[in-house]
Design brief:
The chain contains eight helices and 19 strands. By secondary structure, it is an alpha+beta fold. The strands form five sheets. Strands 10-6-3-11-12-13 form a six-stranded mixed β-sheet, sandwiched between helices. α1 packs antiparallel against α3 and α4 packs parallel to α5. The longest helix is centred in the middle third of the chain and has 18 residues.
Length: about 400
C-alpha cells in the first residue's frame, strides 16, 4: 500500500488561496464527500489535498515512525501442551526467533518478559481455603472461588501456583527493548532459559507490560510503543481474573498519554474473551492461533500483521518547509484506491475514537510527536488494496469530529 508503511516524505507546495466571498477566513470549506470518511470538498486547482478554500500550504506523504514492541509471553503450565511439531511453547518461541531473523524486522525494537513469575516480593498465600478474596494473601491474590460465608469455605484460585501478583515484577523486562537484529541473541537466550510452569496471572502481567511500555514511550517520544500479550488461557490467578477487569487495564493503557496499544495473540480457542481485551486495548481483534494447524507459522504471521498495522497507522508530524508546525492546522487525508481524497476528522484523545467511524488523535495532546489513527480508520487503511495513500496536510484549520 503506497505511502502507508514508511514512505518517503515528498511534498507538494500549494499556494495559499486566502479569503474570498464564500470563505472569508480562507479556512477549509464545508463540503462533504465519500461514504466512509467525512471529506472536505472544493479543492482549488493545484491543491491535491481535498481541502477547500486553497488554504493548504503544504501536503506531505505520511511517513512511518520507529516501532518498539514489548512481548508479554505466557509461560504457564498449559503452554507445554503438545501441538503439531512440538509444544505450544516450542512453536511460539520458534516463531519469535524466526520473526527476529527476518530482514524486514531489522530496526524494529523488541523486548520480552514472561508470566507467571515466581520471584519478587508478592507471592500469594499458599493456603487454598478462603471465605473472601482477602483470605488469599496480599491485595491482588485470589480470587476466592466457591465460598458461601460464613459456613462454606472456597478455594483461592492460583494459591498453589505461587504466581507473583506484583505488577513491578512484570514491569521489569527480562530483556529490555532494543533494535533488531542486535537484541535477537539476548531474546533467544532468554526464551531458552524459560519453560512452562504455573498459572495465568494476566492482570499484573498486562499492567506491568503497559507500565514498562509507557516508560519506554516517554523516553522515546518519536517511537510507537505497543504491547503484545501472547497467551493460551483465561486468567487463573491474581485479581482481577474476570475479562472486564482485564479489559479495563488494556483500556487505561490505550486511553493514556502516551497511548499504549495492546495487541493480543491467543494460542487456542479463546476468540471472544481475547477479542474483548484487544478491542479495549485499541486493536481491532485478537489474532487466534489454531492449535490443530501449524502453530509456529500462524504465530509468525500474527507478529508480521501486528507490525504492519502499527506502522500503517502511526505517522510522524511533518515539519513545514518554512517555520514550525501549528498543531491546530494539521489534517490527515486518506485517498482510497481509485477514490477521491477524504479528510479524517481529529478527535481529542483515544477515548473519543468513534467505535464505527473515522478519526485520528495526537499521541500526546500537550507535546505531540505522532499522528495516530483510531481503530476504525486504521482498519480501513489496512484493509484497502494496494494503491491507497495517507497524506498530512499543513496550513488549514484542523477538521475536528
Amino acid at each position: 500500500m503506497a505511502c502507508v508503511h514508511g514512505c518517503g516524505a515528498g511534498s507538494s507546495q500549494d499556494g495559499d488561496g486566502g479569503a474570498n466571498s464564500s470563505n472569508p477566513s480562507g479556512s477549509a470549506g464545508a463540503g462533504v464527500g465519500g461514504d466512509v470518511f467525512t471529506g472536505v470538498g472544493g479543492a482549488g486547482a493545484g491543491n491535491s489535498s481535498g481541502i477547500g478554500g486553497g488554504c493548504a500550504s503544504e501536503t506531505v506523504d505520511g511517513t512511518g515512525v520507529p516501532l518498539d514492541m514489548f512481548i508479554m509471553l505466557d509461560q504457564s503450565g498449559s503452554m507445554g501442551d503438545s501441538v503439531q511439531g512440538g509444544t505450544k511453547w516450542t512453536a511460539v518461541t520458534g516463531a519469535i526467533n524466526n520473526y527476529m531473523a527476518l530482514p524486514a524486522s531489522a530496526g524494529i525494537g523488541v523486548g520480552i518478559q514472561y508470566f507467571p513469575l515466581t520471584t519478587g516480593g508478592l507471592v500469594c498465600n499458599p493456603n487454598p481455603i478462603c471465605f473472601v478474596d482477602g483470605d488469599c494473601g496480599a491485595p491482588g491474590c485470589g480470587p476466592c472461588f466457591g465460598a458461601i460465608p460464613p459456613s462454606f469455605p472456597g478455594i483461592c484460585m492460583g494459591a498453589l501456583d505461587t504466581d507473583s501478583c506484583n505488577v513491578a515484577d512484570y514491569a521489569t523486562p527480562d530483556v529490555a527493548i532494543a533494535p533488531l537484529p542486535g537484541v535477537a541473541t539476548a531474546i533467544t537466550a532468554s526464551m531458552a532459559a524459560h519453560s512452562p510452569t504455573g498459572g495465568t496471572p494476566t492482570a499484573p502481567a498486562l499492567q506491568g507490560a503497559i507500565d514498562h511500555a509507557t516508560a519506554h514511550a516517554m523516553a522515546n517520544p518519536s517511537h510507537v510503543v505497543l504491547v503484545v500479550l501472547a497467551t493460551d488461557g483465561d486468567p487463573t490467578s491474581c485479581t482481577p481474573t474476570d475479562i472486564p477487569g482485564i479489559q479495563a487495564i488494556a483500556a487505561a493503557g490505550f486511553n493514556a498519554s502516551p497511548s499504549i496499544l495492546t495487541f493480543v495473540i491467543g494460542v487456542g480457542n479463546l476468540q471472544a474473551n481475547l477479542d474483548a481485551i484487544a478491542q479495549s486495548g485499541g486493536s481491532n481483534a485478537a489474532f487466534i492461533v489454531d492449535t490443530n494447524q501449524n502453530v509456529e507459522q500462524q504465530f509468525l504471521d500474527a507478529l508480521e500483521q501486528i507490525k504492519g498495522t502499527a506502522l500503517g497507522c502511526a505517522y510522524a508530524i511533518p515539519v513545514p518547509t518554512m517555520g514550525n508546525p501549528d498543531f491546530n492546522q494539521v489534517n490527515v487525508e486518506w485517498t482510497p484506491p481509485g477514490g477521491d481524497p477524504q479528510i479524517i476528522p481529529k478527535v481529542t484523545d483515544p477515548s473519543a475514537c468513534p467505535p464505527n467511524g473515522p478519526g485520528w488523535y495526537y499521541n500526546d495532546a500537550q507535546n505531540p510527536t505522532q499522528i495516530l489513527l483510531c481503530p476504525y480508520s486504521c482498519n480501513e487503511v489496512e484493509m484497502a488494496s494496494e494503491g491507497g495513500q495517507v497524506r498530512i496536510v499543513l496550513g488549514c484549520e484542523t477538521i475536528v469530529e
